[in-house]
Amino acid sequence: MPAERFHLAWFLQGSSIQAWKEPWTGNISEEWMTADLFLDLARNIERAGFDYILLEDSIYIGQNWENSREIFLKNGMSVPRQEPSVVAALMAGATRHLGIVPTLSTFAYHPYLVARIVGTLDQVSSGRGGWNMVTGSSDLSAQNFGMDRLPEHDSRYDMAEEFITIAKKLWGSWDPGAIVADRKSGVLIDHTKVHTIDFEGEYYRSRGPLNSGPCPQGQPVIAQAGGSPRGKMFAAKHADTIVAHVKGVDAMKAYRQDVHANMRACGRDPDTCKLMFLINPILADTAEEAQEKAARRVVEAGQSLDVRLAQLGWITNIDFSGHDLDAPVGELTTNGHQQSLAQFLRKAGKRTLREAITDYTTRGASVDLVGTPDQVAGQMGEVMEEVGGDGFLFTQGNMSRRTIAEVTDGLVPALQQRGLVRSAYGKTQFRDNLLEF
Ligand SMILES: Cc1cc2nc3c(=O)[nH]c(=O)nc-3n(C[C@H](O)[C@H](O)[C@H](O)COP(=O)(O)O)c2cc1C
After folding, report:
1. How far apart are CA 290 and CA 369, in angstroms?
2. Is 231 in the pocket of ligand 1 (CB under 6 A)?
3. In the chain, is it the N or the C terminus that has fewer CB atoms within a 10 Å radius of its CB?
């Protein structure tokens, strides 16, 4: 029996400039503003048949280490970071098949504005627009928008529920066939087919209709990542694709079963949402070289504990600089990413903070993949078979054109030879490609 195919996507994390000290990054510290590296990435992964690129976002400069911005600015950690909808528009212009998914946080944009931005992206890309719907995780970002702090974790999801209801109603505010463009009668748009939505919620109000017009996909693709119980239920209800960072094959399998059970409870067919697991494979010409590379990464990780702790602090709103590195991690709570913290604490167990942070990374992967392209392709096939589907979301901390090529020109052809991923796009629109298998 031929192997079941799975999907590939790319999680564009951090800032292009942060790799400036690494080899093979050209003159990125001077060229980052034009986003050329990101556009080359988009073109390359499209050549390799990826379903989509997801552009991460956060809207603040970190200050979660010694209550200072120094470590974040000195190392270019997620800064400078450009407005994702602008970069997404450039990517739409540079590609023809790839799904483009900017992250837009619900606390920072009004639902009408998101519906308009993502709707426009869907139009200018001929049906390849998506939205990574996030609720935000840092009070520092809330302060950039005049709030003292973010709303409490679960009420952010209550707000998100209203938010997405408005966005969907706005995308639906143009009936099919509303644009007549009949020269004889002189009617461009049939006004009876364009409706207000008159939404009055607890948190938001919007009149509509959406003035940017209808979307080629009807509704752009929704991506979501909520890992808490509330987050998972929200994603099961609304998402076309879920991005997940859970550790190990058993946890991946359980996560997928959980999502499917939640989807059935919401009356949805589980096949209509594709679950993508974060990976960061280590690839080399030989197995030995790949193992050496992996060992080097562990050594490098041990040397930059403060950077790693600052990164964990960035997503959990915790300043670890005052914590004793040689004491057990203990109990911690967050109003930020609950799942990420829970995962860190679960793995830490009774270990010290130093031990726990050494083998933890916020850019970590669901499974470790190390080897030649062919070996890693085999490992990915085995993992997917065990988990049951749907695909992988690549990420690379310090990305270069060379490391991109390792994936698109090394690993992907090996996956294609095994019949595990597509060799050509089967459809023209983003959601249709996601639903193709
Ligand atoms: C792969 C992945 C990508 C994510 N991308 C973003 C992002 O770009 N911006 C953001 O604010 N949160 C991002 N998140 C965080 C999620 O939106 C969500 O807040 C987080 O998973 C915590 O959800 P929970 O509080 O329901 O556990 C991402 C999470 C994952 C797993």
Report:
1. 10
2. yes
3. N
